[in-house]
Design goal:
4 strands, 144 residues
């Protein structure tokens, strides 16, 4: 229990750290960090090309084994909303949001002209058909 508490404190410190605006960071993996929101400091990473806010989990076939609540685990991110500040990440090529709790896509996502990969799989509350109007504006997207 103490180790889990200590890990939570360390994660909180890491996530709350301010990253310099001129950071050279091009890859950021925040998967399985028990996040409910995206840290504001992420949006200052102007050179970011790869952002993983999704969750890794092991699933055994068949897919029908997934219950209605979807994948689960102690450390899984549960991000419900991606703010329009995502549009600040103009160099972003890959955005992974799989297995979160997304309800909709941000309108600012259409401003990411270099985005070629968007993973929104296993977001049980995201109705993709309602997002068609946004998705069709990202005509340069290669992988969805």
């Amino acid at each position: 229990m103490q180790m889990r508490f200590l890990n939570s404190i360390i994660l909180l410190l890491l996530v709350s750290c301010k990253i310099p605006a001129g950071s050279e960071t091009t890859t950021l993996d925040l998967s399985n960090q028990n996040l409910t929101t995206i840290p504001d400091s992420v949006f200052s990473l102007k050179r970011l090309e790869y952002l993983n806010l999704g969750n890794s989990f092991t699933m055994y076939p068949p897919l029908s084994a997934l219950h209605q609540e979807g994948p689960s685990g102690d450390r899984m991110n549960q991000i419900r909303q991606v703010p329009d500040e995502i549009s600040r990440l103009t160099n972003l090529k890959t955005l992974i949001l799989c297995a979160n709790d997304l309800r909709s896509l941000p309108t600012g996502i259409v401003e990411l002209k270099h985005l070629d990969t968007l993973d929104i799989s296993f977001n049980m509350h995201l109705t993709v058909s309602k997002e068609f109007s946004t998705l069709k504006k990202i005509h340069w997207l290669k992988y969805l």
